[in-house]
Write a structure and sequence with these properties.
The complex is a heterodimer of chains A (384) and B (652). Chain A is mostly beta strands. Helix content of chain A is 8%, strand content 43%. Chain A folds into two domains: 14-160, Methylamine Dehydrogenase, Chain H, CATH 2.130.10; 199-326, 7 Propeller (Methylamine Dehydrogenase, Chain H). Chain A has helices at residues 93-97, 330-353; strands at 2-8, 15-20, 26-31, 35-41, 47-54, 60-65, 73-78, 83-89, 102-109, 116-121, 129-134, 138-143, 154-160, 165-170, 181-186, 197-203, 208-214, 224-227, 236-241, 245-252, 265-273, 280-285, 291-296, 300-306, 312-320. With 652 residues, chain B is mainly alpha-helical. In chain B, 41% of the residues are buried. In chain B, a hairpin with a 3-residue loop joins β2 and β3. The chains are: A mainly beta (384), B mainly alpha (652). β25 (312-320) of chain A pairs parallel with β1 (9-13) of chain B. Chain B: Pfam families: Nucleopor_Nup85 (PF07575). Chain B: Component of the nuclear pore complex (NPC). Chain B: This is Nuclear pore complex protein Nup85.
Amino acid sequence: MFVARSIAADHKDLIHDVSYDFHGRRMATCSSDQSVKVWDKSENGEWHCTASWKTHSGSVWRVTWAHPEFGQVLASCSFDRTAAVWEEIVGESNDKQRGLSHWIKRTTLVDSRTSVTDVKFAPKHMGLMLTTCSTDGVVRIYEAPDVMNLSQWSLQHEISCKLSCSCISWNPSSSRAHPPMFAVGSDDSNVTYGGKVQIYEYNENTRKYAKAETLMTVTDAVHDIAFAPNLGRSFHVLAIATKDVRIFKLVPMRKESTSTGPTKLEVQIVAQFDNHNSQVWRVSWNITSTLLASSGDDGCVRLWKANYMDNWKCTGILKGDGSPLTGSSGQPTAMSTVVGSSVQTSQNALNGMSAGRIGKRAPFAPPLRQLISPKIYQQHPSYY
Amino acid sequence: MEELDVEPAITNIPAASDGKHLGFAWGPGDILAYETLYKASSGAKGSGCSFIHEVRKDEDIYSPILRKLFNESHHIFVGLQTIREDLPNKNKKPQFVSISKNYRSVIRACMEELQQVAVSTKDAKVSMQYGNQVSILLAIELIWNLCEVLFIDAAPAGSLLLHLLDWVRLHKADVDEKAREVLQSESPAEHHDYWDVVVSYVLQGRLEEARQMLVKQATLQPAARNMYKLMDTLLTKMPFYNPGGTQTLTEFDVKWRNWHEEVDRCLQDNSFASNRHLEIICRILVGDEDMLLDHKELLGTWYHFLVTRLLFSHPTVKPTELHYYAQSCMTMFLDSRNVPEPLDNILLAAFEFDIHQVIKDCSIALNNWWFVAHLTDLLDHCKLLQSHNLHFGSNLREFLLLEYASGLFTHHSLWQLAVDYFDHCPEFGRVYLELQIERVPLDTERKALKVLRICEQRQMSEQVRSICKIMAMRALRNNRLGSALSWSIRAKDAAFATLISERFLQDYCARGTFSDLDLIDNLGPAMLLSDRLTFLGKYREFHKLYGEKRFSEAAKLLLSLMTAKIAPRSFWMTLLTDALPLLEQKEVIFSADQTHELMFCLEELTSSLNITPGTDGSMQDEDIELTKVELLRLALARNLAMAIVKEGTVET
């Protein structure tokens, strides 16, 4: 892996979240400077900031995109106790020429009395639904009944989790066999309060969400939680960022036909890693859930991968090298330093290890001025 | 299987490290990383100059030359998948060998191109980078070639050594380069590399070429003529197994032993004692290991040493015996100072016929999935992989193909190749394709149609619907109603079609004309998707009939729009107003019955309007409405009168 480019984000304070849109052509950033910025990727892969506006009156914790079926819609949540929904409107043509776009606030969701810590759109097959959770321990599910009118959101469900909530994740499965399900994590650090991850499932009969399971083994503060894409499997996979990285398998038990309660889940731990040494703050899956990334107190992002035997291992680490880029002309510098250093390593490998092999030549014309031998540079252990 | 413990690769991010966190976001082909602090409280203050770093996973995919490798190997891959399953394996072997050779020739072509660029470029960094890629491809081709010999071709004793010789010759071709230099010099026999070339030829078993070189020396030393002649005889007489011939392996072995004894006798006789070089060659011919190891520089690698040693000591080596010789040659060749590298271990595993270890080590050591995915697929087709029943993915082949194809999917044009790979992964291919294809950016209508076609061919109805919906939404946002409508018809999205039809009708009411006539005129059965769309189509049909002066048909249609409740109530006034010019025609168009029905509609409308007397609308609007109603009533009454008269006249 290598750093292809560095983008000067130009936020005036800490960035708290960066989020790709569904197709990976746009991203949104949010910061303690109370603003959100939207970036568009040009044909040549450069990122351009096309909108930047003040969104909240406090730190903006998270920003997230709705599915493009609903248009260009963002949601943000903040320390200012609100969540907000934003929609891009197609502006004047001269704005487009200047590479700018307009985002207008469609609604402010003010039901929380405390900091709103996470905001997520529900899977698209459920319609346009937005979920928030807050430090007062309440998960709220809103729905926009008319997708053409995003100023109307109705609070559909209010679920009290009793513990200060830090994160939510929807189960992305759209299978009919799986009723809507989400997991909520709590960052309450008091271990005597028991399990910090709760799973809720929608009940068709009562039209309410009911708790299906509490992961009793996770008693430390939970900072992030992520369901993996389902891949057509009968079970669900959930990654948790707590004092370590954990991956759980949730296997729905066969339901008795008379039972009307939530599906019982059999909880199995698949992997547990303490490589971050201390708290883990974020976990997230790639598109096909073959890779899990986690970020922790060791200042690293670690990539985890299962081989075909379902053994999980760390296959890559992103690490700050202690040289913060400064100035606005960071882009070219970043490129050359990083590309430069990786070439350096390969060169060392070449000089150090294959000294005894000099003299071999590639078996074809034109004759090489450079001596090349078959050699494997250990650049990126793919690990299978 | 033994787990090789490899330290994870560390990628340095130009960001502060102490006390700060590294945030991240997954993208389709990359990860964004940024400096942050998660122990979030309002107190934490960040620096103003924050950067977001785009970290790419696979750089190979962006190399324009390697792209050819991906493209061409894709054709071979697809061809391989169509080889008929029902043929007995024996008959398929030549096909598999030829496919293996095709793959290798693609690698070679790619290498040559890379090498030319590496040599011709002035940029040292680029040259270095391409040079590295050539080295990796060389290693890949070397491994592949060996796998082809050992696993796919599976040559038996006798032929095995011949194949291995070819393998070594192909990958140790610098002797030709050196030979050319020597031969082009003024006096080849006196060239300082002369003997290196002769010995190298012998080491590779290229005895004919060695003899030709020796002739040059012999002519210079007439005194040693006999000695050279003796060597020439030994070289000429060395037997090589001929797999196509009538000779059995045992016959060959006897012949070879006789020759070997003869060489040995020459050595005992000190026949070459007076010529150091010929003495060396003779001892090589007799398979003297110490003498071979004295020529490490010329052999270059332990596997060349292995093949040379087999050639002169065990030419009838069986596949099952290889691992023993390979292991000992590696240990002998690499002394304690040299640690075996990944490549050495991979080749050794191949000689040990441990296919899984080869694939595994290659996966770990190589930074792309191209090689392992294609080789494993080929070996799987040869029925060489025991079908491990796997937890993750149905088997090794599928696991590796999925990884490779997923990598391709991150590229803006290579993703189309990946589709075929996913198609040939029975277990998870389809789910992967579904997840990946809906992420392909739909930059243009053309690209959207391309993606759509792929989904439609595979009956991926949810993806088809979603793509159409996204496109419809985008068109609507940009006020391209026609495009929005056709996409929502494609998505079979009734609610959205209703919404867009409504927009069309609003536009008509505001401007008096329709846009996108072509589309609306040609809706056909698609019209039935939603009531509003049906109405839009029928209403437009009315306008067409009217325009063509087919008044009675137009009138009939107009009336039916109301009586059959196709038209929304809100639109009735517009329809009745549209009836006005028809009522005013000289000729009677609406019959008495029809006029009655029209009157009925009008009264129904006005009575329902009267329930909520216009409080919102301005007086002026209300006046206009009232005037309209009055006008309509008048026209209807007059038309009714005319119709009764006319109908009465016709009857009598």
